[in-house]
Amino acid sequence: MKTASADPPPRRGGRPSRARAGQLRDRIVDSAAHLFLTQGYGATSVEAVAKRAGVSKRTFYHRFADKAELFGAVVQRLIASLRPANAVPLFTGGTLEEILQRLGKVILRAALTPEALALHRLMVSEAVRFPELGIIMDTEGSRREAVKHIAALLAQQPRPGNLMPDAALFAAEQFLQMMVSLPQRRALGLGTPMNPARLDAWVADTVRFFLDGYHGGLPRQA
Asked: What CA–CA distance (Å, rounded) separates 174 from 170?
């Protein structure tokens, strides 16, 4: 990203236009994302972010209260870039197994992007020193949203007895953990990364294991 040397000139009234203000904020967030993911949260200062973005510290603090709030904006930006443009078709059409396989592929595709892996490394390396990062990730991250949608999907399925909301949430958490954990570990260098064909097979096998094992009482649809 090309860095400007100073804040862009304000309008005659002294304040930047709404469009210009949005551009300034985007530059700050983009600069922070690069620095956080390459240098780490602790090693990145507000001064460094402002310098890379080509803005003054005063401009920075007009838009963000502190570095933690900026990190939240970076997480939001990353999650938004990974989220499908229209997630509704993922949850509709086909059997439960087919829906979960579609979801599994989308979830893995997002979790294994270089940006998502870099964010995971950042969290692992910095969360002990900066526990607020974990709170931000839990609040701003996509995992909670994905769990909620998957739990709602599972709770709608016919089965002997009723799947209580807490049980559905637990099942959704287990599904995400099963789907992402090993491929992500390997992509992070803890083993041989899975190629696309192996990832597709992993998704199919994981969905079948999930339905046959944890939800053994859930009837298959023809």
From this structure: 6
